[in-house]
Q: What sequence folds into this?
């Protein structure tokens, strides 16, 4: 009898341990007096000093302190400094226990070049929020695989002369970093696939998700809800990436898909023959998970914040869809 009890206790301990390992860690929400680091892990910030200044002023107006990476305004070919310089700023922010959030100045291209140089050992002792989108998807993937939540949202280059034009972008960003509830109601779409799902929200830019395939920064989508957005691609290339992800088993155990902005779709000399929404529905036709269109997130001015790694309850209908981030 004692032996059976010991076995039961051991099994419960193992189950609890596995569950805790599977659950992502939430960095502490920000509060007045906390410090945000602005870094540029991707493209060069040529003539963007005013955007950085606007971002600093916005964060300060919320009672936050701001530090700017030493190499943010450097230019090396396409990038905001050499790989080592961009890595240095990001690594310093990861390691610094006084930093509560890392705000990426812009996307573009370049983050993938520093991924394998990064060390998260000190970060684990003092987790902090990573904030950004587009090329920053590569870092979101890495954060997800490290077991930490991150924020898909506003970057410094999102700033505009009239901030009222990006009111929802800013207000949802503020809600996300300060821990206010996040919930969205999306406009309906004839392309929606109705259904309900609950799972961790992951994803980002489709090109970057495709780029991460078969690498240690490719994400496990099992039991999760995938968000995708894209900009400046041909329809055939969007289909190619979806087909590649599908062949790699990316959607096999996925719980649902939320589609953000697919912006500035390029025109090919040969017409694709359907809308980009129909393209996505067709590519995912053999799966039965819900698909929701019309999320305002991606490469448009209205870019609403989402917490990757956080569990969401998704309900999709033809008339509307909702998804609510669990507390």
A:
């Amino acid at each position: 009898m004692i032996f059976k009890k010991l076995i039961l206790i051991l099994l419960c301990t193992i189950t609890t341990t596995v569950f805790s390992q599977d659950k992502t860690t939430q960095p502490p929400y920000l509060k007045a007096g906390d410090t945000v680091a602005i870094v540029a892990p991707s493209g060069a910030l040529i003539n963007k000093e005013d955007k950085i200044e606007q971002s600093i002023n916005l964060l300060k107006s919320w009672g936050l302190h701001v530090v700017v990476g030493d190499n943010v305004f450097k230019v090396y070919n396409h990038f905001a400094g050499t790989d080592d310089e961009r890595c240095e700023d990001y690594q310093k922010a990861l390691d610094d226990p006084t930093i509560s959030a890392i705000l990426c100045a812009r996307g573009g291209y370049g983050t993938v070049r520093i991924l394998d140089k990064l060390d998260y050992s000190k970060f684990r002792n003092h987790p902090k929020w990573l904030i950004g989108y587009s090329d920053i998807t590569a870092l979101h993937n890495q954060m997800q695989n490290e077991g930490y939540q991150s924020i898909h949202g506003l970057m410094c280059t999102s700033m505009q002369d009239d901030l009222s034009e990006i009111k929802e972008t800013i207000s949802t960003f503020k809600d996300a970093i300060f821990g206010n509830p996040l919930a969205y109601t999306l406009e309906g779409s004839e392309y929606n696939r109705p259904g309900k799902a609950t799972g961790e929200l992951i994803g980002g830019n489709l090109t970057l998700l495709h780029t991460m395939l078969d690498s240690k920064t490719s994400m496990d989508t099992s039991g999760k809800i995938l968000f995708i957005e894209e900009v400046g691609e041909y329809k055939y290339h969007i289909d190619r990436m979806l087909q590649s992800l599908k062949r790699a088993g990316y959607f096999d155990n996925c719980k649902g898909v939320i589609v953000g902005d697919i912006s500035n779709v390029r025109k090919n000399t040969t017409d694709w023959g359907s809308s980009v929404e129909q393209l996505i529905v067709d590519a995912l036709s053999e799966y039965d998970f819900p698909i929701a269109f019309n999320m305002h997130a991606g490469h448009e001015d209205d870019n609403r914040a989402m917490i990757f790694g956080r569990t969401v309850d998704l309900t999709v209908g033809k008339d509307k869809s909702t998804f609510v981030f669990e507390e």
In short: The longest helix spans residues 2-22. The two ends are 41 Å apart (CA to CA). The longest strand covers residues 195-205.
